[in-house]
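Late entry, written up from scratch paper. The run itself happened at the end of the previous shift, but nothing got recorded in the book at the time, so transcribing now.
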Amino acid sequence: MAQPASRQGADSLLDGLDPEQRAVATALLGPVCVLAGAGTGKTRAITHRIAYGVRTGTYDPSSVLAVTFTSRAAGELRQRLRDLGAVGVQARTFHAAALRQLRYFLPREFKRPVPHIVEHKARLVAQAAARLGIEVDRAAVRDMAAEIEWSKVHLWAPDDYLEQAANAGRGLVAGLGPIAISRLIRSYEQLLAEMEAMDFEDVLLVMAGMMQESPAVARAVRAQYRYFVVDEYQDVSPLQQRLLDLWLGESRQLCVVGDPAQTIYSFAGATSAYLTGFERRYHDATVVELVRDYRSTPQVVSLANSLLRRGRGPGVELVAQLASGPAVVFRTFPDDAAEAAGIAQRIRELVQEGLDPVQIAVLYRTNSQSEPLENALANAALPYQVRGGEQFFARQEVRQAMAMLRVQAKVKSDEPVLYQVRLILGGLGWSDQAPGERGAVRERWESLDALAALAEELVLAGAASLADIVGQIEERAEAGHTPSTNGVTLASLHSAKGLEWEAVFLAGMADGLMPISLATGPEELAEERRLLYVGITRARRYLELSYAKARFAAGNANRRYSPFLNGIWPSADQVSRKARGLAVPDQADLTKDQRELFEKLSQWRLEVAESASIADFGVMTDLTLRALAVRKPANARELAGVPGLGPVKIERYGDALLSVLAGHGPVSQ
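Output as recorded:
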């Protein structure tokens, strides 16, 4: 029996979909959970699902709300749906959808004007702090604003902050403890009330409150939207989930799409718990895994899968669909400048081979790592653009430091040059020890620390005066500000999420940068691994990972590649270590006595890791323990010669290590 013409037209939408994508497109009634690996065509699957539902008459287009997390992603969804004939479907961010509803219902149902929406918190946070007599700078304001957002997306009332922050283990924020932050939040909320304004989190909170208070509003919203699709579901916050639950009511018509292996915004309140727990909430849910990777070569996919398997975290095993490509490249350099120059040279080669610079990206963990890369690309006359942040020399703290250095350079001084530099940077908040705080305070310190390292590098290269240092840094700044709009992308791993390039260079893949030294607990380390996974899966064809043994030329060459790459980094690195006399035997090659000592050291490491609630490799890697078992250092000076033991670890663990090595048994610290 022939199908109706309308049904035949609908089925044509399924042409070209792979079996898993087709399963998503035809699962029209919820609950549905789509676990979509990187590059597997999730947007194609969900847009065809919506279009198929509209074409078959299952959905009225106006009854569908597709929710995602960025305006760019929402715009892409709308365009694809229009191209598929699903005109009238709403595709919005959580905030845009909630604001539209709020503007409609607040005047009609509650007879209240719509408050002014504060797009940026900084000014109000600064005013709230000033009311309390708290002195703040730009970095502190950013961190305070982030903490206010954190408390709101976790549905913490201002009066509950103290208890909730203690339960969540929140530390100092911009140097302030929980009591001060609690007072700041109340001051901030008072300012909003006086202005008759609300911020973006309030939009979701107020809309949720309206639906709870008014059955009429709840009925109207649920009558309008009957089918929900939520993209990037691994990134929802408790506040967004609360609003989604209220939108749904008793309905089960929900399709969620996400990848727990790409949860990298926990610091902003995102959690993959709602995605990974979807089947527990909906026992009869249809679950589809999208595993066919259409973005990357088998070489790139294999590396991504290896990283994911070693982490034992949730995620799908990708199956590459593209033809074989070049091998993933792993490179080790003597210092950061050499690494940047090597990356720039390789990019130049790719461009000469015909690759458009816009199809190339260099990704790194922190924005402060961009300076040598900007300098190297400028020296190589390669156009570039910094995504998700200002160029290094345009950052406020760097410009402020340079202004003060210029003034100091005109003053006659008998003090050593580096002493003068560090004194000035110290006055701006820099110290030789990284702050324990996160966010803007840490980013500011990293920028100043990069400037301190650059000054030290220039002195070692022959700069004799502060004026020499200032002049050479200004030359770099001038070269680094080469105008470009269509060049190589420089970006942090976070800001690269959702993007892809033909060639990707992952720079700074050293322990302490990946994972970042601030990540110590199991959850933080797992998120760092996911961040590296996101970086790897941005590459289509060319992928190179690199790290520098030292920060600058003639520096202490004690860096190692990321522990996440243990068992992955090729043996060529071991060959280069042997050439420098730094070889460390594999565990199988140890003598009986060395193996016994290695086991004692491993037991000591386990005790330390458990007492600090961190991963064991966060204390020390197996390579370092093997080196200790082989060399049996007897004092701090000999410890300093062991790969992986820098001054900080020697200060922290040196006495305990020497005790174990002397035969006194495992000693926790």
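The chain has four domains: 5-99+205-290, 116-195, 331-565, 587-661.
(Scratch paper discarded after transcription.)
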